[in-house]
């Protein structure tokens, strides 16, 4: 197994690990049962697969009632974009990204979305307008001063940029009724350029 995981792949791998653990099977026992190496099992459960539909098949004995849903998920696991309504699926995705990302940047000119308030402040920086109300004890803050005038990002929807250690970054757009996660190249390029420009003139405030 080679390659890098998509967000969908990471979430599917997490579910496979949970299914295996719920069945009371260790990584070593499962690897022996399906004649895989430990590394192959661990990589798949981290979201790395050359062929999700075929790799998924070895997990069928431990998946139980999850099987049909996981089969559908495997068909889409290589897709670079995911939409989901606010709820358990979004919380799980944010938890996975929050634990895995090397750095998290938020372009949140009017304030931080409630779903993002519990990210690790050691790795998370929010870029906000000068008058935005933000809890400085929960996140590093970079203020966009009014004196900057027309600032980079004015044409962008608020976004969160998760820089991943082992795959392309993930961009989150938090809409009113749904969350859009994407690893599509144009979105990643826009996000990279935006935060690079913002870093040129923002003011650091209240690092925890």
Description:
There is one protein chain. The protein has eight helices and eight strands, in the order H-H-H-H-H-H-E-H-E-E-E-E-E-E-H-E. It has about 210 residues and is an alpha+beta fold. It folds into two domains: about 70 residues, lambda repressor-like DNA-binding domains (434 Repressor (Amino-terminal Domain), Orthogonal Bundle); about 120 residues, 2-Layer Sandwich (Endonuclease, Chain A), CATH 3.30.870. Helices cover about 40% and strands about 20% of the residues. An eight-stranded mixed sheet has the order 1-7-6-5-2-3-4-8, with helices on both faces.
State the gist of this model.
By secondary structure, this protein is an alpha+beta fold. It has helices spanning 7-22, 27-34, 38-45, 52-56, 60-63, 67-76, 88-100, 185-198, and strands at residues 81-85, 103-107, 124-129, 140-144, 159-163, 170-174, 178-182, 203-205.
Q: What is the CATH top level name of the largest domain?
A: Alpha Beta
Give the overall average pLDDT.
Answer: 88
Strand line-up of the largest beta sheet: 1-7-6-5-2-3-4-8
Order of helices and strands: HHHHHHEHEEEEEEHE
Task: Tell me, briefly, the overall form.
Answer: elongated
Q: Which structural category do the helix and sheet elements fall into?
A: alpha+beta
Number of strands: 8
Strand content: 15-25%
Radius of gyration: 19 Å
Q: What's the CATH topology label of the largest domain?
A: Endonuclease, Chain A
Query: CATH homologous superfamily of the largest domain, by name?
Result: Endonuclease Chain A
Percentage of residues in helical conformation: 25-40%
| Biggest pleated-sheet summary | 8 strands, mixed
